[in-house]
Amino acid sequence: MKAELKPFWNRYFKFDWKFGLFLLILICVPRFLLVLQANQTGNYGPIGAIMLVSALVPFIFLNKRGRYKIGFRATKKWGALALALGVGAAFSFLLYFLGQELYGNSFQNWYEYIGKSYQIPAIISAEDKLVLFSIMASTGMMFSPIGEELFFRGIVHGAFAKSVGERKASLIDSSAFALTYIAHFGLLYIDGRWQFYIIPTLIWVLGMFVVSLIFFRMKTSSDSLWGSIICHAGFNLGMIYSIFYLL
Questions:
Q1: What percentage of residues in the chain have a pLDDT greater than 70?
Q2: Cα–Cα distance, 37 to 40 (Å, whole number)
Q3: Mean pLDDT of 20-25
Q4: Which of 112, 99, 116 is nearest to 44 (CA)?
Q5: Largest CA distance in the chain
Q6: What is the domain partition of the chain in residue ranges?
Q7: Across residues 4-12, what is the average pLDDT?
Q8: 225-241 and 126-140 helices cross at what angle (nearest 10)?
Q9: Residue 151 to residue 232: CA distance in whole angstroms
């Protein structure tokens, strides 16, 4: 049987659920702690570093065949990619309207809390706001979609899928993705102390779980990780637009 892992790693691992679990612990636990620290200190630099590491994981562990097998390949299904972008953006707006309807402009609204990390000045000209939005949207559409999709829908999903099949693997990587995002909204650092809102957090985690399943669906419809990456980029674009112009 042909191996997906590079020869060095074949001495220590098999490409199976145990390897997938190892990767989740290796990346998600420190990421969770780093995000909480960033929410407390306002220094989000380490988050970019963990996204870079996440993107590199498939290239560190997998050979060319392994990377192809997890979906890191080109696609000519342009319609599927265009659909992925639109679906991602649409779901982000759905979460915006749900948050506004339930919690208004309070920090129990996930976008309100996440938006404070963007440090948008209270008084800012339309031109400067557009520049800041363009910068945040550009980075938001590149770093986390590439890093997270190569990791969650890529190598982690592939490892679990080899043991339990595609459908169950999707439920596992989506659950891991959603729980990881509790660090972004769930454990809230407000006015110098930590707070936890159970119902908003449950809604947010459910939303992240569902959108993760959508990312996987876009991967399968495009027959490439580029489908999930572009869908994720569309989601981030919609979220950032909501934070800048709709809140």
A1: 100
A2: 5
A3: 98
A4: 116
A5: 62
A6: 7-246
A7: 96
A8: 160
A9: 13
